[in-house]
Amino acid sequence: MNPFDSPEFWNPKNRSPICLNPPAARTVLPITLIRTKLVLAGKSKEEVKESVKAAIEKKELPELEAGAMSYMMSKDAYLTDKGGHNMAHLMFYLPLGTVWGANVVDSSNNLSEPFPGSPLLLAPTYKGNPEPIDMFLMGTGVWSDGTPAQM
Q1: Least buried of 9, 47, 93, 146, by fewest C-beta within 10 Å?
Q2: What pLDDT, in 10s, does the model give residues 112-128?
């Protein structure tokens, strides 16, 4: 589910154990599955993007349910080639354009920066490209086994 403009949109080394709560399993997982199916079928990024956009417009994919979130807290994950292990974190899925109090969007450059001391570590991703979802990450400080994790 990396954004389409990410250099790691489809990284075959990626191993991303994820636990979805019921609203995310019903509404975010279908998007993940359609993207995966299209990429494995050899479609280009643009073809995948257009197919997902068309499925959303035709109401073939469910609308995001309130409370959709997921947990990524496995020490065995490999999320990026950028080095080191990514943090243990929660992901909150919200309707496109949602403003969270921990983030402020600077309309002049469309960037988000967390307030000092805020648990929100990253700006929203997806941003309607084409999914009508903003996803926010929050570090947990512990792995799934309860051991401390760097944030």
Answers
A1: 146
A2: 444 555 555 455 676 77
Q: What is the largest CA-CA distance in the chain?
A: 45
Candidates 75, 70, 118, 121; CA nearest to 94 is 70
Q: What is the pTM of this model?
A: 0.80
Token pair listed for 13: 């080394």
Element housing 49 (H / E): helix 45-57
Axis crossing angle, helix 45-57 with helix 29-40, rounded to the nearest 10:
140
CA 103 to chain centre: 16
- The CA–CA distances, whole Å, from 3 to 9, 101, 131, 147 equal 6, 23, 10, 30
